[in-house]
Every structure is written in structure tokens, then in C-alpha cells.
Amino acid sequence: MSKLVVFSLLGGDLNKGFPVVTAQLWHHNQFLLVKLTGSLPAVPELSQLYHRWQLLYEAIHQRLGSNQRIKVHSQDITNISVNDFDEVCQQLQANINAWLKFESFQNIERQLRTLLNRDDEIRIIIETNIVLMHRLPWHLWDFFKDYPKAELALSNHEYASPQVLPKSPTGKVKILAILGNSVGIDIEQDGALLQGLTDAQTTFLVEPTRKQLDEHLWDLDWDILFFAGHSTSIADGEIGKIYINQTESLTISQLKNALKTAISRGLKLAIFNSCDGIGLALNLADLNIPQMIIMREGVPDLIAQELLKNFLIAFAGGKTLYLAVREARERLQGLENEFPCASWLPVICQNPTTVPATWQELSGNFGDIKFVGKVPIKGKMATPKTKFWTVLISTFIVAVSTIGLRYLGVFEKIELQTFDQMLRLRPKEDPDPRLIIVEITEKDIQSRQETTLGLKSISDSTLATLLRELQKDKPRIIGLDIYRDFGDPPNKLQPIKLSTEISKENVVVTCKSRDSKYDPQGVKPPKEVPVERQGFADAIQDPDGIVRRQILMMAQEPSSTCTTPYSLSLQLAARYLSYENIQPKFNEDYIQFGSKVFKRLKPDHSGGYQQGVDLGGNQILVNYRNTDYQRVSLEDILSDKVDPDLLKDKVVIIGVTANTVSDTWSTPYSSAQQDYQEIPGVFIQAQMVSQVLSAVLDRRPIIWVLPWWGDILWIYGSSVVGSLIVWRVRSLSDKGCAIFVTVVILYGVCAIALLKQGLWTPFIPSAFAVVASGVVVIFIQSRREFSTTPQSLVE
């Protein structure tokens, strides 16, 4: 059975005495059973004794090295002993009990004892506006020894019932936990204990600004307000102040409006697990908050942590607020060899018009409580604050491991596929107006019966006629993407000589390099064309068969029949640009046209290419234009169906597109087509020529990669960002969302960098590092929470 006893000390102080003391006995705050009147005499020595105790308390803790949350004030006492302090403690206890044995007050006590049972849960509230009376250790009164379920609370004289708006239960106790300035103290355990509660939803504000704290109090509903950090009482204990971060401190009056709103929306309990909370309690009581738990004096870290742990175990385990506080307070006595008077520190401050809510009432969950060992545990992982350097070390290990895996080629295939996917995000582009393709189709070959020598091509005479017809329309340059290392059969009539047509200065022919490993023969160029107008047409396939690179220059093998060091695409682009007075500059590592520099891929790991790919010669990545090129057929040219203006000043590339010819290749766009399609080699050559011309004349991006150290910094930076975000996020579900959002943002950044600036960044290894570092941080935090949880919590 619950009883409430309210003592009102009116019209006096310790120096004058209290001429009127009233005591009211209530049954569960509802029925007034009795009201009694008495008085207390003056005891000025009690005030002096308490001040001496206070000075000795601070000094003894300073000497014992337990002043982690205690701010020791200047004092005259320099030579003390634990025995001296114990003697003052005994004197203080004796004086309090002697004072309360005054006959007029004893009359009140005797009558109360006749109405109270030993097994009653009794809430004792002392009403007084005198700060010193709030500081006195009332729990030393002998009354509390006789009633093991009685506990003390403090109150001001003036109070009113808080006006609370109705709200629906959520099944969770909503806690706003403010982890304030932690310089010189350790408050990580406070957060870990709160995060591990059953049926609780804890929101952490770590060193918040005043604006952040104010907004949270205004905008959301809370059941419990928790603060850990530095606090103090000033103005002789009349004003309380909390230090919310390293530069800001706040009094209750500075949060008055926000706190009043929070109380009206259901805030029931405030816990200040910090030093010297009397001033905070006095100020907050004026706002009619139902209950508070504070520390009377400075509190060592371990005591603050033990009190919170034991209180939460008892309160969330089903005990009432008062019984939970008494149990937690009394359990501190076992630490008093190391921390004298630890059990004197915590005290409840109560609005007498309210009934303290239980944990189950706060959560709205009245079902059975499930325990693991001795502690109610919920189904999500507690995430205490892990040290910053631990995060950096784990991030470094993850990043180094990721870089090592990339070096070994683990990510190469998926990096190339992601590169293709990002390229396909580009919207469709207009055709390059400087290029036109003359395609030799299957129809052209069959209709002209030109399957000579079993080769799917056209005869010398037809090719010569085509070249002559094209020259009439004055193209700037003609590229012949047809191997011509054979001639027509002897004695065949040739009205137009091919040797004459291909000897003209604006015609570039092709050959194929000899490769002792893959192509020991090669394809030689027509003998009538000098090497200055020859270009090799070698295509480079990645291991998955897709053409992503082009060779601009390479040294030929000494025995090769194709001796030109320049590619067909480079020859065509360079000759076109020469008409614009732009001449190339060649270097071992780059080719430059005007201000545009084409840097080659480094042979020792470039971009996503890490293992098993030959990056010899001067290779660059192909920045494919998402478009179809202008093209006309052989028949259209020979039948004079093409507008001459269509060919004038253009780069004309002649090639075979007949589907019976095996000159087809895959591009990054092939896999996006509904039916996987390869495209003829002449279109690949057009893409390569267009890439050079567009970059020089239109400033279209060239695809480039970071140097090896740039990739390392990118991967490490991504890992750091990912791990720090996970480190700062509290709940496990939020951590998972944070990892996902980080990877999505990283993808967006990499895609924009590629499409807008041409920079191919290492997305896949970076995303892997973000996920891996996030998982590692979660693992470290969970391990840390387990290792820092006191053994009594897990046994």
C-alpha cells in the first residue's frame, strides 16, 4: 500500500527555528488521512556543521583522486584525514536526529507511526524554500531505518499541478539524453546504459548547441529528460547551470519556454547525473515538473555511473521510482571506502500534486518484462561512444585492406561494369557533324558480285571508283578502314586505278600490327601509300570482350609489316585539326593538341585496371558518344544520291558493315540493348576520331583517372567519412540507413565526376570501404558495450 507524507517547514530557518511544521498523510495522493502540526527549534550549529562537512567532502575527494565530476572550490582546509571526515559525518547524523527528536516534532512522528506499517511504501516529501535545507542529508533520520520502503524527496513551498495534454501510448519510453561538456569526465557509460533499456527510445544530443536542445524540447514529446556532464549551482544555490558543450552553458530560465512545453506534452522525469544539482531542482520545480533526480554535491564518475545503472535496473525492472532510487542509493554504500558519503548524494525532487509514474506507465506497455540475466534488454544493440582514434585506426585498416584487394584485381570486373553503367546514364547526344561513315553493306557486296578471292569486300576497281566519287565532294580527310593487302585477279580490266586514288594526300589507309603472341602475321598496308599516311587499326578488348580503350600511339615490333607508330583514328584527327592550325605535340606520356592533353594510362595500375591488362603504348579511355553517326552506303555514293555538302570538309571513314564480316565489337552500350549487339569496327573508329576532335574543338571531357596515390586518398577518405557517420549515429537501424545513404551519395558523386569532368573515380572499392568500415565500427561499438557493461549486468 502506497502512502505519502508531506512535511512543510514554514516561517523560519535553522538559526531561528521553524515555529510551524505541518505533516499531511495521504493515501496514494488521493485521500488525506490526517494533518498534524508541530514545530522545530533553532539549531545554528547544524548549519555550521554542514558547511564544514561540505568543505571536507570536497577536500577528501580531491586528495583521494576521485574528483572526476567534482569541481573543488577554494578553501582553507589543507590538512585533513579520513578519520576527521568520518567524525564530522557522525556529528552531522547525530545532530540531525537530535534536532528531529524535539518534543513538538516527536508528537508528529509518533502519530504518523501509528498510521504507517513497516511494509508500506512511503514517500516522504520535505517542503521548504531554504537551499540549505535541501542540501541536508535527510535520509540519515532514524525514521528511514525503521521503514525500509520509505524514501525522501524535496519540494518547494509553491507548486501547482502541471497541465498535461493527453497523448497516446507508444509502447516506448521516450528519453532525450543530453551528453554535455565531457572535458575531464567520462560520460560514455551513461549513454551506453540508457541505450540498453527495454521499451525505450533514446535520442542522444552529444554536446548540442542551445538551438538544437531548444528545438528538441519544443518539437517532440518526451517522457524522461536526462543530462550527464558538468553542472553547478550559483548565487548561493539559487540558480542551477548546465554546460551543454565546451563553449555554452545554460540556466533553467534560459530554457523556460521549451521546458514548459515539454512538461505540458508529457515530460514526467528529469535526471541530472551531474554535480551540485540543487539549483537546477529549485528552478525546474518552478515549472511544475513532476519528478527529478539530482545529486546534492559533486559526484565522482564511478558513483554517477553506478547510481544510474542500479536505478535503471530497478526502475525498468518494475519497481516504483522511490523504491528504485532508494535501492540505487543504498547500493552506493559499498563503494564508500573509496568514495566517502557516496550514498548521501542522490535525492528525488517531487511535485506533491503528482503521482510518480512507473516505467510501464511511461511506455504504455504493461506486459511481462523479459530479462537477460538481471537486466531488461531490448532487441537492438547498444552503441556507446567509441573513441575517435579507434575509429581512425579501424578505418585505416579497412582502407589498406581494400586497396590491397583492388591491387590484386578483385574489383576489376565489377569496376569496369560500373564504369559502363555510369556512361549509359548520359543522355543521348547529337551526332558529330564533322564525321560521316561510308558503309559497305552486305547488299553492296552481293549486288556487285565482289566476293573475290573468297574475301567479303569490294574490288580494287570499285574502291577506286568510290574514292574518286568522294573526292569530287571535297572531304577534308578520307580514312580507309579496310585492309588492302591483296589485289584483284590478274588481267581484270580496271578503268580507274586504285593505286592512283589512294596515293592522294588526303587518303589514310590502315594496316594491322604484328604481334608475336596473338597475331604473328599482321596485315600490311597498300604498297603505294607512304608510312606517313598509314594508321594501325588494332582494337583492344578488355577481359570481358568490351572495347573501352583506344591506342593512339605504339612502337611496332621490328619485324612487323605495319610500321606506323600512329593509329588510324589519331592520323585522321590530326590531319583534320591541321586545317584548324592545331598541330600535335608528342611525348612519352601524353599527346597534346593545343591546350588539350591526352594523358596515357599508366602501365602500373590505372583506374579500374589493376591486373592482367596490357596498358602498353599510349592508351586512353574511349569517351563514347551516345549517338548514331551519319552514314551513307556505297550504292548511294556511286549512284550520286548524296548531297555534296554532306561530305564537304568532313572526315569520311570507309568501312565494311556487312553482317557476314567478323569485324564487330562490343561497347559499354551493348549490354544495355535488349538484344546484345556488337557494332562494326568502322563505328568504333568513328567514336575514337570523334573523341579527339570533340575534346579539342568542343572541350568535351576526356576520361582520365587519378594517380595511384589519388585513388588511395579517395578510398581512404570515403572509408573515413563512412565510419565517422556510423560512429555518430546511435541506433543500429539508423547506422544501416546511414551506410546505404552514404553509398548512394558516393555513387552520385562518382557519376557526376565521370559525366561532367571525365574523372573515373574508384567507386566500387570506395563503396566497399564505406560498408566494411561501417560494419567494423558497429562491431567495435558492440564489443565495447559488452566489455564495458559491469559483470552484474550480464550474469
Describe the structure.
- The chain is of the alpha/beta class and 795 residues long.
- The chain contains 25 helices and 31 strands.
- Strands 3-2-1-4-5-14-13-12-8-6-7 form an eleven-stranded mixed beta sheet, sandwiched between helices. Strands 20-19-18-27-17-26 form a six-stranded parallel beta sheet.
- Strand 23 and strand 24 form a beta hairpin.
- Helix 7 runs parallel beside helix 8, helix 13 packs antiparallel against helix 24 (763-788) and helix 18 runs parallel beside helix 21.
- The longest helix has 26 residues, at 732-757.
- The chain is rod-shaped.
- The two termini are 32 Å apart.
> In percent, how much strand structure appears in the residues?
15-25%
- Termini separation: 32 Å
Count, helices: 25
Q: Can you tell me the overall shape?
A: rod-shaped
**Low-pLDDT runs:** 71-76, 366-385, 451-455, 786-795
Helix content: 25-40%
Based on CA atoms alone, the radius of gyration comes out at 43 Å
* Structural class computed from helices and strand pairing: alpha/beta
The counted number of beta strands is: 31
Task: Jot down its keywords.
single chain; 795 residues; alpha/beta; eleven-stranded mixed β-sheet; 25 helices
List the helices and strands and how they pair.
Layout: E1 2-10, E2 18-27, E3 31-40, H1 44-63, H2 82-100, H3 103-115, E4 121-127, H4 131-135, H5 143-146, E5 150-155, E6 173-179, H6 188-195, E7 200-206, H7 210-219, E8 224-228, E9 231-234, E10 239-243, E11 249-251, H8 256-264, E12 269-273, H9 278-285, E13 291-295, H10 301-316, H11 321-331, E14 346-350, H12 359-363, E15 371-372, E16 375-376, H13 388-407, H14 412-423, E17 435-440, H15 442-447, H16 460-472, E18 477-480, H17 498-501, E19 507-511, E20 534-536, E21 549-553, H18 568-578, E22 584-586, E23 590-593, E24 596-599, E25 618-621, E26 631-633, H19 634-638, H20 644-647, E27 651-656, E28 664-665, E29 679-680, H21 681-697, E30 704-705, H22 708-728, H23 732-757, E31 759-760, H24 763-788, H25 791-794
Parallel strand pairs: 1-4, 4-5, 5-14, 6-7, 6-8, 8-12, 12-13, 17-26, 17-27, 18-19, 18-27, 19-20, 30-31
Antiparallel strand pairs: 1-2, 2-3, 9-10, 10-11, 13-14, 15-16, 21-25, 22-23, 23-24, 28-29
Helix pairs in contact: 1-2, 6-10, 7-8, 10-11, 13-22, 13-24, 18-21, 22-23, 22-24, 23-24
